[in-house]
Amino acid sequence: MFDIKPIMDSCFFDFKKSFGTEIDYFIDCIVNRITCICLAGDGVAIMKILDAIYESSKTGERVDV
After folding, report:
1. Concatenated DSSP letters for 1-65?
2. Residue 52 domain boundaries
3. Residue 50 lies inside a defined structural domain of this protein
4. Distance between CA 52 and CA 58 in Å, rounded?
5. 51 in a domain, yes or no?
């Protein structure tokens, strides 16, 4: 058995800067007609997974995606 506690130290990852960089990239893709590396289908797949996680948590049952 392991008791593993994740350690998040803000000095290693700047959430504000990361989000700003993400938005800048998205705008650059629109303005310069660059193909975005994160496709809409990826976001849909992630949302399906998250919905299944919440449903499973609520029902205590396995939810297929």
Report:
1. ---------TTT--HHHHHHHHHHHHHHHHHTTPPPSS-HHHHHHHHHHHHHHHHHHHHSS----
2. 40-65
3. yes
4. 10
5. yes
Mean pLDDT of 15-42: 90
Q: Which amino acid is at 26?
A: F
**Count of CB atoms within 10 A of residue 52's CB?**
14
The answer as to whether 30 is a domain residue is no
Cβ-based neighbours of 24, under 8 Å, separated by 6 or more: none
pTM over 0.70: no
Neighbours of 51 (CB within 10 A): 12
**Averaged over 27-34, what is the pLDDT?**
95
